[in-house]
UniProtKB/TrEMBL annotation, chains A, B:
It comes from the Eukaryota. Residues 161-189 form the Intradiol ring-cleavage dioxygenases domain. Keywords: Dioxygenase, Iron, Metal-binding, Oxidoreductase. One of its GO terms (molecular function) is catechol 1,2-dioxygenase activity. This is Intradiol ring-cleavage dioxygenases domain-containing protein. InterPro entries: Catechol_dOase_N, Intradiol_dOase_C, Intradiol_dOase_core, Intradiol_RC_Dioxygenase. PROSITE patterns: INTRADIOL_DIOXYGENAS. GO terms for biological process: catechol-containing compound metabolic process. Belongs to the intradiol ring-cleavage dioxygenase family. The keyword Transport does not apply. Its cofactor is Fe(3+). It comes from Phialophora macrospora. The keyword Ribonucleoprotein does not apply. It holds the Pfam family Dioxygenase_C.
Length: 339, 339
């Protein structure tokens, strides 16, 4: 070495902060806080704080961190589906549109993050119907009249969905829009079933002047969240099962009331106590009743079928009934974010 | 409503736990803990705890959460590059292979998470050279002999990289493998430069029997982390600049010593105190010296060039010199993870 050109020794004139494991976090937050938007500043400071605390507490090993981002990358690109933005696109790809599968939402779902977000965003006023997770299967559908069937022939066992929409004083809400979707009798949403040519087991309609609704569908069955991708590996890793308890989704809206995003769950489901996405709440667990005979079926235009149980046959249909209670619009400020 | 089929009232027989904002987390951890691998169990419990606490403390709004996963999805799929796994693939795509751009690693980098992981994974023993972040530009390269140039003609201003590799007793380490990579004089790594036909400004070589190394390259310059994608939006949002201070990467390995992943930074860089990925440490900040004349250049096979400063011309070359100190292998257990 030539000492004349080695100027390293004694070069302590830099004012660079040496950041160790304990003060790096404060530094990152500091340099990320030079913005005017207080909300974004706050969110990122907490995001950095928690992601760092997580890594600190677990002393994440490099190979573990590499596995994590490899996973996230795979998640973000899985699967590489054909984007579909319009009906024109749908006809071009020659089948019903498959929305891009959102593996990230699913990850959020199975980690309970979606449920947490739902809870924080839906603090119900006393007496109102509780909310539930939206899930990835909401989609556009047609408008129907009361007594119509949202399900194609042979989609499953006939079920009448009936009830009212009211406010907290018990007054009926007329003209509330109900957007309903459910699986068919095979546990598949229309978008998952290549046999389906368009919307099936989903539809929109309005409550009548007495706040009532009734529509015909099929009895939903338990189905697994998609587990053939990265999130399925997580579920396997955590020794968790993938089947959601059978349910029907309801998205209910009216200009004078808070939008309600909820679902009703079948009490007899073997998975009612182990929903992989943490959406079930006891107030939303329902008994789906068997209604015998043809009289009520005629009244609601409901198809009957022969049910065999304990060796005896009866003709009738299933009934899912619920009275939804909406909260008055709170006049919450418009929280448009720059994000 | 027909009271005969409405069995909702009084149906309190379910034992379903109602999980509110405060006890959902414990529940999710509980149902995710039914596994034998204690490490995975611990990591996921902390991941869930922190992600939930983050959402709780910030009361994340639904539109904010939607923006988050839309961002992550975009990050995961940005850009949709041609996968490239072998030299055969490279020739098929007709150009030097561009490794898939890892937007997630970059996100981790700018949030300081990568630096935190590096710190936790590289707790240096006293007296050893400190580590730095790996970054996304490490790649395969050729092997060189001492005095060779790793840089193509015209890649930048000639710089000799010289030093020794020693243990903590000051004894030279013979046969240590140095893997070096740096930008060219335009601030680009070879993989970012379409003009480059193969590896450039990167190479591998071994220390001699006295632990010495010397190789010719170019003086690196500051360059921005890729900011034309999702992470660039984050940097903009946080009012942060994207330029890393000029540096040379070193990955040094030897069977008897802990692998050292580090970098040396140019003290004169205007960004030396604001590295966007938090990789700089004062012990790694170096004075790059100007060596005048041709004598030493001949000794090390270094190209000289005419430098104009303050109106006067001198012929010489740049010198980056450092003595690296490696830690003895600790015999750490093989921490192969199931992840």
């Amino acid at each position: 070495m030539s000492p004349s050109v080695n100027s390293i020794a004694g070069s302590n004139s830099t004012s660079l902060e040496d950041l160790d494991v304990d003060d790096l976090t404060a530094h990152v937050i500091k340099v990320s806080s030079n913005i005017d938007n207080e909300r974004i500043k706050f969110i990122f400071s907490r995001l950095i704080r928690h992601s760092h605390d997580f890594i600190r507490e677990t002393a994440i090993q490099r190979h573990e961190w590499e596995a994590a981002w490899e996973f996230l990358t795979e998640a973000g690109t899985y699967p590489r589906t054909v984007p579909c933005h319009s009906m024109t696109d749908r006809s071009q790809v020659g089948q019903a549109c498959h929305p891009e599968r959102q593996e990230f939402i699913l990850l959020s779902d199975v980690l309970g993050i979606s449920a947490l977000v739902d809870q924080i965003n839906s603090r119900q006023l006393p007496g109102c119907t509780e909310s539930s997770v939206l899930g990835p299967f909401h989609n556009e559908s047609h408008e129907f009249n009361h007594g119509d069937s949202i399900s194609s022939v042979g989609a499953g066992q006939s079920m009448l969905i009936r009830g009212t929409v009211r406010n907290r004083k018990g007054e009926p809400i007329s003209g509330a829009l109900l957007d309903i979707w459910e699986t068919n009798g095979n546990g598949k949403y229309d978008m998952q079933d290549p046999e389906t040519g368009g919307p099936d087991c989903r539809g929109k309609f309005y409550t009548d002047c007495e706040g009532r609704f009734y529509i015909n569908g099929v009895r939903p069955v338990d189905y697994p969240v998609p587990f053939d991708g990265p999130v399925g590996i997580v579920l396997d890793l955590l020794n968790r099962q993938a089947y959601r308890p059978a349910h029907v989704h309801f998205l209910i809206s009216h200009p004078s009331y808070e939008r309600l995003n909820t679902a009703l769950y079948d009490r007899t489901s073997p998975n009612i106590f182990r929903d992989p996405v943490f959406g079930t709440k006891s107030s939303l667990v329902k008994d789906i009743e068997w209604v015998e005979g043809k009289e009520e079926a005629k009244m609601y235009n409901t198809k009957t079928f022969i049910r065999v149980e304990d060796g005896s046959e009866t003709e009738g249909f299933w009934l899912l009934e619920h009275d939804f209670i909406l909260a008055e619009t709170q006049g919450t400020p418009n929280l448009k974010s720059q994000l």
